[in-house]
């Protein structure tokens, strides 16, 4: 049976057919295209089934080694040029199908490589302490006015979402002048154990402006009020700024962006 192609990273330039020892040991190979070199790994049907099953917490735990492999290969690749990091467990049926997909997306990929050259992604998350959105003052009222209370709770929750989202946007606004590109990934409440995420953002920052960006971030974090908390992780590969990769790929998982991964954690 023919092995499936696990596409890990597309590098903006040729690697001259030479792989670092660490990638050789990890079983990586190069598939060359006119756009750049693609780092792949050939996998069998059992691994394909394992990766396709990684759509929940238990499934992801089962592929921890593959997640670490994916991340490490992309980091090493970034030492050799700008990188298009494929989504985790992006699978193709053959080398030729993979090459054709890259050719069909070549224009968007070239624009992307120019845009992200010498730049990294920084993930910003704004959290707020949990609050009680409504209070039942009288048990009798709760029993006799359930519909009213439900409407009141929905209204209060909606007001809080809008207020917090607006405050989160205002808080990060001064950072945009230090970024080459900016994306609001999510606003609104995302309940967690002891905090609510009210906004997640991605900034594409040139490496020559990273110090200014992080300095401004510290200033914003120190001046924040109302219980909001700011956290930032990076630098990452520019996952959030990739163009859509139009291809007929075999489904893997969609756990792709470090920003999304970070957004699932507590501040």
From TrEMBL:
Tree of life domain: Bacteria
Signal peptide start-end: none
UniProt subcellular location: Gas vesicle
Pfam family, one: GvpL_GvpF
Keyword Translocase: no
InterPro entries for the chain: GvpL/GvpF (IPR009430)
Keywords of this entry: Gas vesicle
Family in the record: Belongs to the gas vesicle GvpF/GvpL family.
Protein name, per record: Gas vesicle protein GvpFL
